[in-house]
TrEMBL record:
<keyword id="KW-0812">Transmembrane</keyword>
<keyword id="KW-0472">Membrane</keyword>
<feature type="transmembrane region" description="Helical">
    <location>
        <begin position="320"/>
        <end position="337"/>
    </location>
</feature>
<keyword id="KW-1133">Transmembrane helix</keyword>
<feature type="transmembrane region" description="Helical">
    <location>
        <begin position="245"/>
        <end position="266"/>
    </location>
</feature>
<feature type="transmembrane region" description="Helical">
    <location>
        <begin position="166"/>
        <end position="190"/>
    </location>
</feature>
<dbReference type="InterPro" id="IPR012830">
    <property type="entry name" value="Citrate_utilization_prot_B"/>
</dbReference>
<feature type="transmembrane region" description="Helical">
    <location>
        <begin position="125"/>
        <end position="146"/>
    </location>
</feature>
<dbReference type="InterPro" id="IPR036197">
    <property type="entry name" value="NarG-like_sf"/>
</dbReference>
<feature type="transmembrane region" description="Helical">
    <location>
        <begin position="343"/>
        <end position="363"/>
    </location>
</feature>
<feature type="transmembrane region" description="Helical">
    <location>
        <begin position="278"/>
        <end position="300"/>
    </location>
</feature>
<protein>
    <recommendedName>
        <fullName>Tricarballylate utilization 4Fe-4S protein TcuB</fullName>
    </recommendedName>
</protein>
């Protein structure tokens, strides 16, 4: 133990010395570099998640390494609760909090357009404004087209309120921009953390491994399958389960939209569709998942140990969760009352919330899934190659 303490102190001193030479690093990046030097000497958490074996392949940590490792971190908190050098120890090692701060910086640094990168730091206000604009837009459109929010029942025919082509054009443009912005952002990130290497250089096992890790949320199991830590030292798989409800609920809703699009354009089958049709069944299942998942994540977020969080990101986290929750709740309400005179008002509210969600996709919490998937792909490529260092294991 004395030998480990001495080695760790030496690593901490080396880390401090390295930081004085790394003038291009921000304060948050410097803190991650400092703590990683200590972790590299200790190695106690090496089996917890991919961050630590990836760390052992490096002796020094430049900006690209820090961005890569910070996005590889799933912020589960297990390493903080296990660390003998966590506060109040003088080394004050806090990997989850330090990497959370660098992650949000990463999103802004690689944002497209670059001028909008600052929206990540103001995501709570951005979400509120987008929601207000979206709701106002569609409510005004209802009043302009029909002159009233209440009407005679229309047998669930949404397109009697808003023409199909108008909705397709509006949401197609906004969603297309979101995909473009996120695509350019993550490409910039990849070029920085993997210079000279393209994502399509990965083949077979690496791509499959990254998809497996992302879809199963492998690194929210704490490294031992019992889960991570949320508000205390107890292990829990709750965050993993609620993330699964959220992600797969979102994907089912997306699948419902895709199937309805095929019905409309390919099969010439137009909405409204009966309840037991494939688009409605997919959308209903997805909506239920998007109720359970975000509600659970919001509950966990409110109980989370603040020592493992970047508290400044709470508005971004909770704003995104709230939009997902409102999207599913308004969608299910619209389905339940689509044959009533309140359909136009419910449709306007639902579409306004969905528009707000689409507008904020490139500049809010949604980005973490895109950047983390890229980091997982890099790790799955990297761990299949021999290390340049005879340190640690894959």
């Amino acid at each position: 133990m004395q030998h480990l303490e001495a080695l760790t102190r030496e690593a901490a001193a080396l880390g401090e010395g390295a930081l004085t030479l790394a003038g291009t690093l921000t304060a948050d990046e410097s803190e991650v570099a400092r703590t990683l030097q200590i972790c590299n000497a200790c190695r106690y958490c090496e089996g917890f998640c991919a961050v630590f074996p990836a760390m052992t392949r490096r002796l020094e940590f430049g900006k690209a390494d820090l961005h890569y490792l910070s996005n590889l971190c799933h912020n589960c908190g297990a390493c903080f609760h296990a660390c003998q050098y966590a506060p109040p120890h003088e080394f004050a090692v806090n990997i989850p909090q330090a990497m959370a701060k660098v992650r949000v910086q990463t999103y802004g640094d690689y944002a497209f357009p670059a001028a909008l990168g600052g929206l990540y730091r103001r995501a709570g206000l951005t979400t509120a404004l987008a929601l207000a604009v979206g709701l106002a837009l569609f409510l005004l459109m209802v009043l302009g087209m029909r002159g009233t929010l209440l009407h005679e029942p229309l047998a669930g025919n949404f397109y009697a309120i808003f023409p199909h082509n108008l909705l397709a054009a509006m949401f197609g443009v906004v969603f297309g921009f979101a995909v473009l912005a996120l695509g350019i952002g993550v490409t910039r990130f990849w070029r920085q953390v993997s210079p000279g290497e393209r994502p399509d250089d990965a083949r077979g096992a690496a791509i499959g491994g990254a998809a497996h890790d992302a879809l199963r949320l492998k690194y929210l199991d704490g490294g031992h399958g019992q889960g991570c830590n949320n508000d205390d030292d107890a292990f829990t798989l709750a965050r993993r389960k609620f993330h699964h409800f959220t992600f797969y609920g979102f994907m089912l809703c997306f699948a419902a939209t895709a199937v309805a699009t095929l019905y409309h354009y390919l099969l010439d089958l137009h909405a409204p569709y009966p309840f037991f049709s494939l688009p409605v069944l997919l959308g209903t299942a997805g909506g239920i998942g998007l109720l359970i998942g975000p509600a659970g994540l919001l509950w966990l977020n409110m109980r989370r140990d603040p020592r493992t969080m970047d508290l400044e990101q709470r508005p971004m986290d909770r704003g995104f969760i709230a939009l997902l929750l409102l999207t599913s709740a308004s969608g299910l309400a619209l389905l339940a009352f689509r044959d009533t005179s309140a359909m136009a008002a419910l449709l306007a509210i639902h579409l306004g919330i969905v528009m707000a969600l689409f507008l904020t996709l490139p500049y809010g919490k949604f980005a973490h899934g895109i950047f983390r998937s890229a980091a997982l792909l890099k790790w799955n490529i990297e761990k299949r190659r021999p290390s340049d260092l005879a340190l640690g294991s894959d």
